[in-house]
Amino acid sequence: MQWIHSASSYLAISQLMFLACLYVVYFSGKLLSRLIVLFSACIVAYILSRSMAPMPMELRMVFTMLATLAPAVLWIIARYLFEDHRRIHPVMWGLILAYIIIRVAGLFMYDGSVPRNSGFFLFYFYIPQLVMLFLACHVVYMACRGRDGDLIESRRQVRVPFAIGMGSIVGLIIGTGFFWLGSPQLDSLYFLIVFVLIMSVNLAMFRYQKQAPQLIQTAVDAPAPKTPVQENADPVSRQDQVLIDRILKAMQEERLYAESGLTIGDLAARVSVQEYRLRRLINQSLHYRNFNQFLNHYRIEEAARRLLDPAEEHIPISSIALDVGYASLSSFNKAFKDTHGVTPSGWRTGEQGAPASA
Fold first, then answer.
1. Hey, which residues does 290 pair with through a beta bridge?
2. At what angle do helices 31-49 and 153-179 cross, to 10 degrees?
3. Hey, which of 45, 95, 143, 332 would disulfide with 321, CB 3.0 to 4.6 Å?
4. CATH number, domain at 60?
5. What is the pLDDT of residues 153-175, one digit of tens each?
6. Residue (of 134, 136, 190, 143) closest to 162 by Cα position
7. Are 10 and 47 in a shared domain?
8. Are residues 310 and 186 in the same domain?
9. Does one domain contain both 169 and 25?
C-alpha cells in the first residue's frame, strides 16, 4: 500500500512541477506565472504534508501552512484570468489575511488534546475552513458568470474546465480539513485525482498555446476599444467591414444597447450573423474583451452627453440610467465611475475625474 501511496503522490507532484515550468517558460515575468508557481507549490505542500514518509513535525507544519494558502491563491488566479477589472477590494484582502492568520495561529497552538467540538476548533479551524470554502465557491462563480459575454474564445472555453478542475483540487484540501478524512487509501485516491486534473490543465495549455498571450493579457495592457472608422483602426477584410458596419449601425442608429438585458445572442440575431463570428469581430476588430464592456461604451457615452446637456438637467439620473439600458442605478453608477473616475452626479456638477485603473 505504501508504494501505491508514494507512486500516486509522485505522479501528482510531477504534473504540478510541469505546470509551473510551463508558465515560467511561456510567461516569464508575468504575474500569472508567479501565481501558478505559488499555487503548484501549495498543492505540492499539501501532498507532502500527507506523506507517509517520516519527517520532522516542524516541516510537516510548514507544508500544512503552505497548503492553507491554496484557496486564496486560486481565487486571485481566477480573478486575474476572468475579470477584466481586477482591482481587489480591501475587504477581500482583509478576509484572506484574517483566515490565514487565524489558521496558522491555530496550527501553532494545537497540541492534540483539544476536542474537535470545542470553541478552539470552531474559531481556529472551522471558521478558516468556511472562508476557504467561500473562496473556492467564488472561483466557480467567477469562472461561470461571465462565460456568455466573454469575447475571448480561448478564455471562454477554459472557464468551466478551470472551475471544475482547480475547484475540485482545492475542494479536496477543504474537505479533508472539514471532515478529517485521511487514510493511505484515500490519500492515494486524492493524489490520483490531482494528477488527472493537472494533466488535463497541461494538455489544455498546449491546445491554447497560440492564444495564451491574449488570454492572460491584463486590462492595463489591452488596447483601448475603438471603432473601425478611426484612422488608426486595424485593417479588416471587406466582408468583415460590411458586418462591422452592420453592427455599428444597430448600436449607433438603432440604439440596441438601450435594450436592458441585451445579450450577444440577441445582437447576433438582429444583425443576422453567427454568434461565434460576432464575438470574433467585436474582440479582434473593435478590441473589446467582453460584451458588457462593448455595451457600456455606448451606454456611458450617451449618458455622459445627456448629463451635461442643459436641456436635460431636470431629468433624474436614474431615468437616464434606465433609458440607456441599465437595469439598476447601482450598476450604472459603477460602470460610469469605472469609465470616468467620477460618479454620474459628480459628472453632472462638473467634478473632474480620471478613468479608474483595472
1. 150
2. 30
3. 332
4. 1.20.1070
5. 878 887 887 877 887 888 777 77
6. 143
7. yes
8. no
9. yes
Give the N- to C-terminal CA distance of the chain in Å, as an integer. 51
Summarised one tens digit per residue, pLDDT across range 114-134 is 777 788 888 888 888 899 989
Q: What is the 3-state secondary structure (H, E, C) of the chain?
A: CHHHHHHHHHHHHHHHHHHHHHHHHHCCCCHHHHHHHHHHHHHHHHHHHCCCCCCCHHHHHHHHHHHHCHHHHHHHHHHHHHCCCCCCCHHHHHHHHHHHHHHHHHHHHCCCCCCCCCHHHHHHHHHHHHHHHHHHHHHHHHHHHCCCCECCHHHHHHHHHHHHHHHHHHHHHHHHHHHCCCCHHHHHHHHHHHHHHHHHHHHHHHHCCCCHHHHHCCCCCCCCCCCCCCCCCCCCCHHHHHHHHHHHHHHHCCCHHHCCCCCHHHHHHHHCCCHHHHHHHHHHHCCCCEHHHHHHHHHHHHHHHHHCCHHHCCCCHHHHHHHCCCCCHHHHHHHHHHHHCCCHHHHHCCCCCCCCCC
- Any residues with CB less than 8 A from the CB of 193 and at least 6 apart, and which? 168, 169, 172
CA–CA gap between residue 126 and residue 147 (Å, rounded): 32
Q: Residues 12-40: pLDDT tens digits?
A: 889 889 888 888 877 777 788 889 899 99
